Amino acid sequence: MKPIIIFVAAIVFFFLKGCNENNHSNKPEEITLSVIFKDGKFKIESENSKILDVNGIYLSIKDDTDNSVFSFKRLSLLQIGQVYISESIDLQHGNYMLEDFLIVNSKDSVVYIAPKKGSTYAHLVDSPLALDFGVFADQDKTVHVDVLPANREKAFEYGYTHFSVDIFNPLYEGLILYFPFNGSFEEYGSGNFPFKVIGPELSTGVNGKSETAAYFNGMGAHIDLNNGEPIITGKQLTIASWVKLNGLGGGIKSHNALFQQRDDDATGTTSKSTIVLVVDNSDHQISFGIRDNESLIEVFVYPAPAYNEWHHITTTLNEASEVGIYIDGKKVLNSNYSGNYNFVTSVDNVSIGIHSYFNNQLKGALNGEISDFRIYNRALSEKEIKDLYHLRK
């Protein structure tokens, strides 16, 4: 392969925590990083000779056909004096787009981050991501990537979903509810919905890491959402989660219920807005039930995966009335919804982990563990669902 001749320069403006943002008379100290990419390697150096605690880079690159070349690929950094050199990557000659760019410290925590176009902090830099660049023989090109210190509270304000790099991904558009269960029960969706954790406990997740999943005991442990008010209000939705079931669910129907948005008084014959996802019913099926305020419930089913194994389960509904069920990134069911998309009438239960029923009964209760739980206000594409599955596989 011919040498790649391309330079990537990054400028970092570090606003010290001691500076009062409202005091414009004090100019914050600036620490400038020089980041150059040449012949497949990154070189990072502090221009004021400051020793940095940087240990690696995460980046995502797509080619000119929108195919992913690298998705949050980690490059280790080797320190040589005050300079840091990355391991090499190979790019064939052609046009590319830099989608994500992050620098992490020795604990793999993000310390510098390139904000994305449309995010809250995009205006703080001259060139937010994504950026086009080309790789061609005997042709020099410099791409400037502005990065900021990752010291704000919300990752989505930079255009990302979380500050933990093992679950970083570009799938943040329309992500209204997001529980990564990464050491806590914090929620990172753009909807900022209030919630209350009632019973679940942190547990070991998909990749064997502790406190990266939530355990539900099958006896009613659940997470209440948005004070019982609807969170899915439009004509599109995606519900996605990693799931490991321990056996039959709880409740009078032994359903392993993952999510509900419904009314207490809704039954099989009363027409009230309902969205219920059961990942394992009494017939050992995934059951995705949808009903508006005029029609009887439409239930879409597919055989559920085996117990005691992690599987990624996704359900979608789009504006073309298409319903999809996916297991481990693959579409296993495609059907059609015939209702009017009214999902907001007479809703008073919105929760993760239970399926409530009339007369204060519990129809189903999740018996198992979940990780990386997401709800979108749009239908993800098949490619996006496959990418989502591979993030934690």
How would the blueprint of this fold be written?
Elements: E1 7-12, E2 33-38, E3 41-46, E4 56-63, E5 68-80, E6 83-86, E7 94-104, E8 110-113, E9 131-135, E10 142-149, E11 175-179, E12 195-198, E13 201-203, E14 213-217, E15 222-225, E16 237-245, E17 256-262, E18 274-280, E19 285-291, E20 298-303, E21 311-317, E22 322-327, E23 330-336, E24 349-352, E25 354-356, E26 362-365, E27 367-376, H1 382-392
Parallel strand pairs: 1-10
Antiparallel strand pairs: 2-3, 3-6, 4-5, 4-7, 5-6, 7-8, 7-9, 8-10, 11-27, 12-15, 13-14, 14-27, 15-24, 16-21, 16-27, 17-18, 17-24, 18-19, 19-20, 21-22, 22-23, 25-26
In short:
This protein is mainly β. 3% of the residues lie in helices and 43% in strands.
Pick out its properties:
393 residues; 43% strand; ten-stranded mixed sheet; 2 domains; mainly beta; Jelly Rolls; disordered N terminus; Immunoglobulin-like; eight-stranded antiparallel sheet
Notes on the protein architecture:
With 393 residues, this protein is mostly beta strands. It folds into two domains: 7-152, Immunoglobulin-like (Sandwich), CATH 2.60.40; 171-392, Jelly Rolls. It contains one helix and 27 strands. It has one helix at residues 382-392, and strands at 7-12, 33-38, 41-46, 56-63, 68-80, 83-86, 94-104, 110-113, 131-135, 142-149, 175-179, 195-198, 201-203, 213-217, 222-225, 237-245, 256-262, 274-280, 285-291, 298-303, 311-317, 322-327, 330-336, 349-352, 354-356, 362-365, 367-376. Strands 1, 2, 3, 4, 5, 6, 7, 8, 9 and 10 form a ten-stranded mixed β-sheet that branches. Strands 11, 13, 14, 16, 21, 22, 23 and 27 form an eight-stranded antiparallel β-sheet that branches. The longest helix has 11 residues, at 382-392. The two termini are 31 Å apart. Residues 1-31 have low confidence and may be disordered.
